[in-house]
Each structure stands twice: as C-alpha cells, then as structure tokens.
Amino acid sequence: MTEQGVGASLRRKEDARFLHGRGRYVGDIAPRGLLEVAFLRSPVAHARLTGIGKPEGAEERVFAAADLPEIGPIRANSALPGFRASDQPALATGKLRHVGEPIAACLAASRAEAEDLAAACRLDYEPLPAVADMLTARAPGTPLIHEHWPDNAFLETRRDEDLSDLDAVAAAKVVRRLRTARQSMAPLEGRGVLAEWDPRLEQLILTSSTQMPHVTKTGLAECLGLDEGQVRVIAPDVGGGFGYKGILLPEELVCAALAIRLGRPVRWLEDRLESLTAHANCREHHYIVTAWADAGGRLLGAEVDATVDAGAYSCYPFSACLEAAQIGSIFPGPYTLPRFRYRTVSACTNKPPILPYRGVARTGVCYAMETTLDALARKLGLSAEAVRLANLVPPEAMPYRNLVGKVFDSGDYPEAVRRAVAAVDVPRIRARQAAGECVGFGLSVFCEQGAHGTSVYHGWGIPFVPGYEQAQARFTPDGVLELRTGVHSHGQGLETTLAQVAHEVLGVDPARVRLVHGDTALTPYSTGTWGSRAMVMAGGAVAEACRLLGERAIAIGAALLQAEPGTATLRNGAVQAGEASISLDQIARTWFRHPQNLPRDVDKGGLEVTAGYRPDPDTGTHSYACHAVTVRIETETGLVTIEDYVVVEDGGRLVNPMIVDGQVLGGTAQGIGTALYEEMPFDAEGQPLAGTLADYLLPGATEVPSIRIDHMETPSPWTRFGQKGIGESGAIGPPAAIINAINDALAPLGAEVTDLPATPARLLAAIEAAR
Amino acid sequence: MTRRPITLTVNGRAETVLAEPRTHLADLLRGELLLTGTHIGCEHGVCGACTVEVDGAPARSCILHAGACEGSGIRTIEGFDADPVMAALREAFSAEHALQCGYCTPGMLVTARDIVLRLPEADEARVREELAGNLCRCTGYRGIVHAILRVLAERRAT
Ligand code: FES
Ligand code: FES
Question: Which residues form the 2Fe-2S ferredoxin-type domain (chain B) (predicted)?
C-alpha cells in the first residue's frame, strides 16, 4: 500500500465543492426560458378515470396522456416463468392505480404557478374499491388492478421439498409471523428532471437526479421511439440515491416529451410530499417462517411463505418481482441450511410500485431469519451466539455453494460473531437483567452478495443484464489523467477511490486524476451504480484501463530514454530505465505536442484506452457482518434507547477504509430507521398517511448512536484488488439485531415484537398482550 | 400574482429583489439571487437543509417568507469564505468524513458554526441534541458530530 493508493484513507477529492455550497444538483440548473412542471396526481388509490377538465385559458399548458401520444408505456417484464406483464403509462390512461400517480403535467414559469394550475384542474373518476392489503390482494372477488390478469399478483415462485418428517425428529420447532413496514427511501434531495432539446444536434438532453444515466437513456429511447444517439442523459451531483434513483421515471418521459414538443427547457423537481406519498415504494414484506433445529441449535430445515407488496406497476429496469423472487435465493443467508421449502408472492396492490432499497430483500430476509433463530435459541435454552456458530458456513468450506446455488467467495463468518460478542460486556447485561432492568442484547449475522453480473442477471430476464464494465483512461496534453466511467457517484466518493486505483496502477498523484462520470455523452455504457457494484466493477475496469495505458506510456518512455524494450518499468508516475527516467507528464506532452519525437512503431491508439472488466466468476462477492446491539426499554412509554451498537464487518480489501466506514455508518443509520421509526401507513382506502417529515420519522443525530466498527479483511479471490461490494451492507443488519435485543429485554415479560418498526405503540401493545 | 420589492442584505451586499408574497426565502436566494448552495429538502421546516444565518442566528429559509426578511442581514454558505470558524469546520468535516452526497452539508455547516460559537463547552450529547433539526440521510452523523467536537476542542486548546 502507498499513502494514496488502494488501502489508504485518503480524504475525499469531492469534498471542497460541497463544503462551499458549490455542488450542482438538478434544482440548481435553470436555463433561460425554463418552464416548471407540477403534476396533477391521483387523489385516490383505485378508480376509473373518466375525464380531465383543464382550467379555462390554460388548455395549452396542461398535458394529459391523450395530449402526448408519443410517449409509449413503460414495460419492465421479467422472463421468470409465470411473470405477468403489465404496462405503466407515463400519464394515467383509463385507470388510476395508486395515490400520487401522475395524470397531467401543468406548466408555468414558476413551480408555484404550475401548482396553481394543477389545483384548478377538474378530475372526473369513478372510485373502485382499493386493494390496500397485500395479504388479501388475491382473495376471490377482489377487484383486479390489471384487468387482464386472473388475480392481483405479478409472480409466485416456489421451491418444493418435503419437510413433513422434521416435526418428529426436531428438538425445537418455531413458527413466526413477521412484517416489515412500507417505507420511503427519502434521500435528502428528491428526484428532479430537466429536459432540453438541442436543435443543432437533434438531441434530447435530459439532466436527472439518477443513479443510472445510461439505463435511463435506453429506457427513454425505447419509450419515446428515439434512437439512442438522440438522447443524452446527464446525472449531475445527486443528493443521495439508495435505490430511489435507480429507475426510469414516468416524470422523465413526460418532461422529455414536453421539451421536444415545445422546444423549451422543462423542469420538474419532486417535493417532499410527492417523495413521501407518491413514491413510498420499498421494504413491505410479510413472512411466515417455520424452522426446525436439533438440541444443539443446528437447523434441520426451514419453510418460508413470503409476500411482498410490489405495488401497482413493474418498475423499469428492476421489475416488480426482483424483491420477492430473491427471497427464495437469499433466505438461507450465511448458514449451511440443509433443507428448505419456500413460496414467494409479488402481490399487486394500489400502492406506489416497489423499488429495491439499499439491501434490497436482504433487510427483510435477515430480519425474518435472525429473529427466528433467536426464537429457536430461547426455546432451546441456548445463547444467540451458540445458535449462530452451530449454523454458519465455516471458513474452511470457502468458497461455499449453498443449497440454492449461491456461491460465497471467502471469509470467516463465525469469527465475525465471536469478535462482535467479545466487544460487548454481555455478562454485565445479564447482571442488569437479573437486577430487574429492562435491557437486552441482540445479534444479527448476514452476508451480502454484491457486484453480481451477467451469470446472475441473465436469468431474471429483466430489461437489462450487466456485462463487462468499461472505463476509459486517458492523458490530457499536460499529463492529467482523466478517467471516464458509466457508474455514477452520489456520496460514495468514487472521485477519490477511483483516483486511488489509478494511483495504485500508474503512480499518478490522485490530485492529478479527474473522474468524469454522470454523462452518457462522455462515458462508456454502464448499468450504473446499484447492487454494491461500483468499487468492484468500475474499480476493476479503471485498473485495467490504467494498466493498458501504462503499457503504452512505457513503450513511448523506453524509446525516449533509448532503453532496450522490456527494460523500462513504470514507477512513481515515471518510466524508468536504469538511472534514467521520464515522467508521464513528459510522455503525454510528447504524444500530443511533440509527436516528431515519437518512435516509428508507436501504438497509434495513443494515450487513451477503454478497457472492460468482469470478475471471473461473476456470481458476486459476499461481504458479511455481525451487528451486536444493546438496548434499554422504558416499559411505561415503550421508548427504546440504543445503548451500544457494534458492527464487525468484512468487505474484503478496503480501497478507502474511511469511506467504507462512512458507508457502513450511513447504512446502519438507515437500518435503525427501518427498525424503530420509519413507516408509511396506508389506510383501507389506500391513502398514505405520513405526508411530512414530522410524520415520517427519519433518524436524527440523537437517534443514531456512535456506532463502533471493527473490520476484518478477507480478500475476495475473484476481484482485482480483493475488494468486495459493501455499500448496502449497513442497512441490512439493524432491524434484526435491534428487534432481537428488544425481544431479549422483553423475554422476562413474555412479550415479543414481530412487526417493524418497533414503535412505542407496538412495544406497549406487545407488553399488554403478554399480561 | 403581484411581485413586490424586498430590500435585504445578502452576504454583505445590499439587494433589492421582486418577489411574490408567497415566496419563501430559500426560493428567493436560490432563484433571483443564484445562491444555490442553500438546499431544499422538505419545505416544511424539519430537515434543516435550507438553514442560513438571518441576523446572526440560524434559521430555516424554507419557512421564512421572503417578505418577512425586509431589512434583514442574510448569510448563506457562499458568504463564509473569510470566516475562520467556518474554515476550521470545513477542514474538520473533510477530515472526519462528515459528508457524502453533500446535500445536507451547507445547512449542517451553518448549524455547526452556531453550535461552536454559542456552546464552547458542548459535549457529544449536547452536540447531537443541537443537531436534531438537521437531517442527514447519508452519513449516520458520526463524522458530523466528531467534526464539530474536533473544532470545539481546537478552540478550547487555543
Ligand atoms: S427545506 Fe427547510 S427545513 Fe427542510
Ligand atoms: S451527506 Fe447526504 S444528506 Fe448528508
């Protein structure tokens, strides 16, 4: 490791602009002649739309579906057998399927005036009974959301295995019904879109707060009937993503069509009400878990019946079934589960369409598995730690292929548990419990598949399959190294970490490395930043591009030094041969400004290389972690205080440990929100009930404790530097560990919490029920 | 809607701008005055992304009517370049990795500077309490809290 290369906690190159308020987000960009859009949105969850009355005199400034026939529907189908196809119209046609669904775009010089217009529109509709509960969505007689379907489900998946003999042989059997709440991901910056038409290039330029500009470009071209060359998507600074911005938006299509039609720049900025209600779109799972274990706590088998509320439509590109269908493959978690049976349902309801949120299905799955393991431990009189150690994949079995075919690359899972438990004074917690204090200790263990590629995704048959990640490395005439990637950085610090990778390979000072990202016109195609993939995939691609660029530089440098080919090497940003050396700057200057000095056989590709990269195998890295939590509960009020929070984490080789810590801390804070605070309730009519951040509670500085992190560093054998994807990890473990700690504290009362978030009301209800 | 002139001082410069009565200060700053460092996260006074200094104290510019700021002195994140406390905070925020996407950062910094100046003896619990009105969705707060404590400690040491 060098002081600035892979493994260094280098300070972030991108910090300066943000610290001075010079970040540039979509809402900061206002070209001349800008028209602002406010959307007229559905006030009801389910209805037949019969008419839209435009305000008199404003007919030209209100656009409904019939006014924009050039926009085709969004189609995000999956090739999984049995998946039911549906179209999502950019603006509602015929039916309204969730509160907040866009119906018409209203344009004015300011957003306030555009909202006035939307408020003045008349809406005619015939209400239909709403399907607001995923568990009864398929019941006979329930109104159909998509009327060509036999019932309200996108997909059902199963794995059959006869477990009927386990009752007779198991020392313990537990059954749990568990539920996670519907959430809004709530990045601090909402979505935003600015669409412009460039008449010279005959090109749509769409600036959007997105995590995946290239996928958005493909989706826009498909739905608008344009060539991809006619579309350029720019993702400027983006104020947090977390999955929320990994989607082709109906609003993007509408703004794009309007900009083309009107020849004027058109902008929509999502406000918090739209973000919270129209886009409350993640995490809502229901589980019935049955698990059998022997007297030592070893799992004999498990059965899972899982339902995910997928909402009304299938989102582009991930589809409506990614979350539920994944449950089958990730439920065994980090364990050597020997037998397994499952059924998963992607239920269709009159709610906003589901999107994968940081951790995707893992947060719910980890919650279901880990609370079930604790229930088994309590029943068997074993410690939570003992049950984990009895079932975790042992390090000597790595790489390990589990019963549903997931392959874990490397790591010592049991050691993570031992370290986490050793970091906490558990005997003292037990002593406090014995003294009558309502305190508890809880664990969760999980692994996270990241950067999984072609071999995993082609089977899903969704609109995209990630392939070779590409990066471009090139020198400017004065020797600055420019990196161009299709992944986008929106908090992850890629402007720094990819410069560290380049430094590792070429020795160029990271201060002289610039990352160009977030512009489809300037960067190689990429599926974008999702699935904890950027550091593995773009890191590998940048390393490869730099290696090839280095070879070209060495060839030129050797010639300039009059060295024998093969004797020159690249060190510290210079080509060296014996005592002689020539800097990369000078080599760049020679190629661009003094070509007369180049050797005759120089590679005519010059100092510009595009390289592709994919790990082999590309089934994904598995980072893993153990979270260990101590809570204190006020039984009078139901208030939970997190006294201590320990994370033992293995992300393989850490490219920048400071930034990895930041990802773990931020993810864990979000997981604390999932566990204790965040919930978008819907009433029986499908109305969302939390319209402000005073109702939808995000954890603040007083709710998130000072989390202690301990790193293990087991390199992945499959990636360029041994790095593993770890961006989502923090958000996976908290609900399981926190609820296990709560249930440990409540055990003397005979009470148990099963539904998230564990609000004071839910805690008091659980305590009351046990009385 | 009719626009009326409002006169106020922004980052030391006298400005007269036209605004509708319903315009809030954040929109005025970001729109008319091109000061986009002030961010908007909720427009209902909860997230703190829009925090600026109004007459020397932090305030949420999204729930302040621009018209109510007639004659006020406003300082936004763009107006602290010569301020040594802000310079120390910027340095500490970077060293402690107190920002990721940067969206909460300008508001955080204005609040942080107020904490440092008003509560020189603040401990971690107090700093966290004082930050309760500024949400960050990215960092989990540890870096932000550590950065503020670092500047407090530096100032106590000199
Ligand atoms: S935007 Fe003002 S407090 Fe959120
Ligand atoms: S750094 Fe993204 S919200 Fe704080």
Answer: 4-80
